[in-house]
Amino acid sequence: MKNSIKALAKEAKNRMRTSAAPENKGTLADISQEEERVFQIVCKLAASDEVVTNPIMRVADPAVWKSVRGVDRERYVLNLSAVYCKQLQRYQAQKS
């Protein structure tokens, strides 16, 4: 059993290495439609005086949210939070 766990861990590590995306430089051609949609929402949220307690759900796509469950939903939230943070940094960099 110990060898099978090691083998599974090694396979998972290899999958993570091979599926790593290259670093996005932030040019308009490299930004996906999802990132651009999130950026527009981030701009609206930052421009408003409203206190936003859950920004991730503000940028979540309702159709996607309803269609995913369990681990896929967690993965969607984690990916979306990474996109949100990236776009918030982009907004702050453009603002300053």
Describe what this molecule looks like in 3D.
By secondary structure, this protein is mostly helical. The protein has one domain. It is 72% helix and 0% strand. Helix 2 crosses helix 5. It is elongated.
Layout: helices, strands, pairs:
Blueprint: H1 2-18, H2 33-47, H3 55-59, H4 62-67, H5 70-95
Concise structural overview:
The protein is mainly alpha-helical.
Key phrases:
elongated, mainly alpha
- What pattern of helices and strands is seen along the backbone? HHHHH
Number of strand segments: 0
- Structural class designation: mainly alpha
Give the N-to-C terminal Cα separation: 55 Å
- Report strand %: under 5%
Question: What general form does the structure show?
Answer: elongated
* Mean pLDDT across every amino acid position: 83
Radius of gyration over all CA atoms, rounded = 17 Å
Number of spatially distinct domains = 1
Largest sheet: number of strands, sense, barrel closure: none
Count of discrete alpha- or pi-helical segments spanning 4 or more residues? 5
Residue stretches low in confidence (pLDDT < 50, at least 5 long) are 20-26
The helix fraction, in percent, is over 70%
